Structure formats: structure tokens, C-alpha cells
């Protein structure tokens, strides 16, 4: 258990250090449905793989179980992903839509507040 805790904390420390590193920032991901589906799909697939690794490690390393328990655990997490993914996609889409609306509103307010030159 301590090893798992140290691994998680180490990953968080490395991620925080990389996020605060000075230098050029990576380009922002694209906009639109393709970019949203790519981000959600990549995050869901990575999350499933991490969850599968944790479940496998627990069943084989801690509980000393295998076989049917492991198969049920992996199919159960796949079912969970199938239930949650459409809801998460909808929430991500609504968030992106609200963010785009806010940025459009800010741009239009900025344009209206600029003094017009008379030429």
C-alpha cells in the first residue's frame, strides 16, 4: 500500500513540476467535434487501462484471486465505462460550449468598448 501511495505522489509531483516549468507552452488542442471526441476517447481509454492495471494488481497481488474474479472485474469496469462515457461526453460538450460562448461574449464586449475613430 505504501508503494502505491509513493508511486501516485511521485507521479503527481512530476506532473506538477512539468506544468510549472518555464518555456513555450504546447499548442492548444483543436476545436470542434473531432477534437472533443479525441480528448474524451483518449482520457477514457487511459483511465480504463489504469483502472484495469489497479484491479489486476489488487486481485493477483493483494487478494490472491484470479480467473473468474479477474474476468468479472475487467468486464465490470468496461460496463462502467459504457455507462459513464455518454454522460461524460455530454458534460464535456456542454462545458466546451459554455467556454466558447463566454469567449465570444468577451470579444464582442471588448469590440464595443473600443473607441471608434472618425476618419
Average the pLDDT over all residues and give the rounded result. 81
The helix content is: over 70%
Q: How would you sum up the major sheet?
A: none
Structural class: mainly alpha
The arrangement of helices and strands along the chain is: HHH
Termini gap:
73 Å
Tell the overall outline.
elongated
Name a few traits of the molecule.
3 helices, DUF6256 family protein, mainly alpha, 119 residues
How does this structure look, described?
- With 119 residues, this protein is mainly α.
- It has a domain at 38-99.
- Helices cover 79% and strands 0% of the residues.
- It contains 3 helices and no strands.
- It has helices at residues 2-19, 33-62, 68-113.
- The radius of gyration is 22 Å and the shape is elongated.
Amino acid at each position: 500500500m505504501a508503494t502505491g501511495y509513493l508511486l501516485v505522489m511521485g507521479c503527481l509531483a512530476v506532473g506538477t513540476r512539468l506544468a510549472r516549468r518555464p518555456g513555450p507552452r504546447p499548442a492548444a488542442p483543436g476545436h470542434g467535434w473531432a477534437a472533443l471526441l479525441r480528448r474524451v476517447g483518449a482520457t477514457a481509454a487511459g483511465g480504463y487501462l489504469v483502472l484495469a492495471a489497479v484491479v489486476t494488481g489488487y486481485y493477483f497481488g493483494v487478494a490472491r484471486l484470479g480467473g473468474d474474479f479477474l474476468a468479472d472485474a475487467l468486464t465490470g469496469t468496461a460496463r462502467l465505462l459504457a455507462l459513464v462515457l455518454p454522460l461524460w461526453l455530454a458534460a464535456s460538450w456542454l462545458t466546451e460550449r459554455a467556454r466558447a460562448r463566454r469567449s465570444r461574449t468577451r470579444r464582442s464586449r471588448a469590440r464595443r468598448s473600443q473607441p471608434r475613430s472618425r476618419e
